[in-house]
Amino acid sequence: MRRTSPAVGVVLLTVLCFAPGLVDRYALPVLLPHLPDAAAPPPGVEASRTPLGDPPVVEEAGGYRFMDSPDPEQEMVAYDPCRPVHWVLRPDGAPPGGQQLVEEAVAEISAATGLQFIYDGTTTEDPDTRREPYQPDRYGSRWAPVLITWSDPDEVPELAGDVVGLGGSTPRGAPGQPLVYVTGQVTLDAPGLAPILEAPGGAHHVRATIVHELAHVVGLAHVDDPAQVMHPAGEVTTLAAGDRAGLAELGAGQCVPQL
User: In the chain, how many H helices and how many E strands?
Assistant: First the structure.
C-alpha cells in the first residue's frame, strides 16, 4: 500500500484552504482520476496527436441521420479518431460462425469510418443498460471497451418481439471540448438470429444486423430510406451511399486528449 507523506498532506491541505479556485481549475482534474471510486480514467490515455486513420473519401449523400446529441449545440457525437476503439466479446450463446461475423462487421465499420478498432478478447461482462463506462477493476485505467454480447430476451427484455439487436454508446465531455463517445454496447439476440443464419444467404443478413448495430455505436441513427442499412426493417445487406456518407463524417470527429 502506498501512502501520502505528511509533508504532501500539509501542502495539499494548504492549497485546499487558501486557493480553492486554483484547486478547481488545475488540481482537481489531475487528482480526481486517481482517487478511489473515480468515475473516469486519467485524461489522454492512448491519445495520439493525429487521427490514427482516415475516413474514406465518399460522395456526399443524404439518407443518414446522427444519433441525438445531449448537447443541442453539437450536431453529432463521435468517437475520438486519435484513439483506438477497443472492443470485447462475450461469446456465450453465439451461433456457429458468430464470432467471425462480428469480426467482419467490426472491420467493415472500421473501414467505413477510419476509426481503428482493437479486439481485446473475450469477457464475462454481461450487457447492462446502466453499464459503467469506466471499470478499472475489470479493464484497467482506461475507458471500458465496447461490449458485444450474444444474448436473449430473458436476459435483455428489450430484445423481445422482432428486435434482434441493440446498439449505442456513452458520451462524455471535458470542459470547453465537444462531447465524444467513450464506450458502447452491441447486444444481439442469439435465438432470434439463429434461424436467419441457417437460411440461404442468412450469414449476409446477420452480418448486416451487426453492422447496423455497430453503426448505432459509432453514431448513426435510423432512417426512413429502405435502401440504407440504417433502415430499421433490415432488408439491405450492404452499406449504401447514405450509410457510407454518414459513417465517413463520424470518422472525422474531433480529437479530445483532455478527456
Answer: 8, 6
